[in-house]
Structure formats: structure tokens, C-alpha cells
Fold:
Amino acid sequence: MGGAAAGSWLIDGSDDDPATRNAYTVGREAWHSVPVDTLFPRTLKGEGAGPGGADRVWTRLAVAPDSDCATALDPLLAKTLRTVGCAHVLRATYTDATASNVTTVGLVFTEADSAAMRALSARFAAEHLDRRTDLLPRTYPVKGTPAASFGARQRASWSVRVLTEIPVVAFAVSGFADGRASAPPQPASQAMASGATTPAAQAGLGHEAKGLADRVERALRTRVADLTEQPR
Structure:
């Protein structure tokens, strides 16, 4: 989807390359140097992001305070990310236009270099870590909103992606706004598959998680690219 295509602004390379080193430096600092409304816009449009290519519009409900991996991720996922040094986690929760679905989307800013991020990405791919139900992001419920009851048992679908051009892991986790439990949650890649019949798949919750994660990831990549290219 869009996030992968937008990530082609920097070719693969080692930290000996000044451009790579600069992108990693800028990306590592983006958690506090990029405005929150840039990282998590108040409204996000997802053209073609829904089932069957339907358009989506998401509205931000709230942004969580800066946290750590132990707060934002299930224990085993937090442990998995220790190899890249989880430094900061930023999260926001959105709802769709009908207020029937809610999604927490987040960015894990790490202390790793490009070699460590590539190694983690390769491990996720080889071991299918993005499909394991014991490696989930946590929700960020928001009182007085459609996400008030969005807790651990309400997680229906999720996406986790390790970036390699910048030291960041992007994730999203979605569920129903009415508080119904989803057991077990289904990874977005499976919930989006043709013929999938689970409640998460039929409600488009895989598309919600993947679509929001892609667009937040794309916005971050674009901003880091702009900052990297600015004359110093």
C-alpha cells in the first residue's frame, strides 16, 4: 500500500553514508521535533483504503502522552524491540466516519542504526512476527468518546511494520466502538484477504489498521525527507 511506496526516498545503505546517517539522526529526533498535528493529523483521508477500494475518513479522538514500550506494547513485543532500543512511543486513537470502528496508531522511535533495523525487519519477515497474537500493540482508550471501552479484549486486527530508512516501528490496532470482545485478533494481512469471513474482516478492521498505519508512516517519512533535504 501507500506506506511502502512512500518509503523509497532513500536507498539502502550503511550509516557510513552521510545521507543515511542524517536521515537516522533526523528520524530519531522526530518524536519531539515534528508537530503532533503533522504526525497525527486531526483528520486523515484514506482514498481507496477500505474494502473494495472504498474511501475512508478518520477523525482523531486524542493523542496519548509520550510513553515507553512497556506501556504501549504487549510484553513480548516490547521484549522483541529491545534489540533496537525502544526510546519513545507516540500514539493517537482515531474513529471512522460512522464512529463504529476505532483504531490506535503509533510510532516507536528507536536508538538503532540502519543495520539493526534491517536485521529486525528481516526477523519479522522470516518468523512472521507481525502475525503473532502475543506480539500486539496496546490500545489507547479515550474517555467520553467512541473509544472509551477500547481495551485489550477489544483488539480485533493489527499491523506492525519495521521501517529501515528511519529508526521507527509503525503500528496500528483496531476494534469495534461498541466494546465487543474479539478473540483471537486477526492480523491485518489476513483480515484483508479475499474471502476472509471473520467479524474483523467483514467489518473492514484489517483495512482500518493497515490504512491508518500506512498514512501515519507516510507522513513521517515525508517530513523526515523534507528535513533531511533542508540546507544546514
Notes: The first strand starts at residue 43 and ends at 46. Strands lie at 43-46, 56-63, 86-96, 101-110, 157-162, 168-176, 186-187.
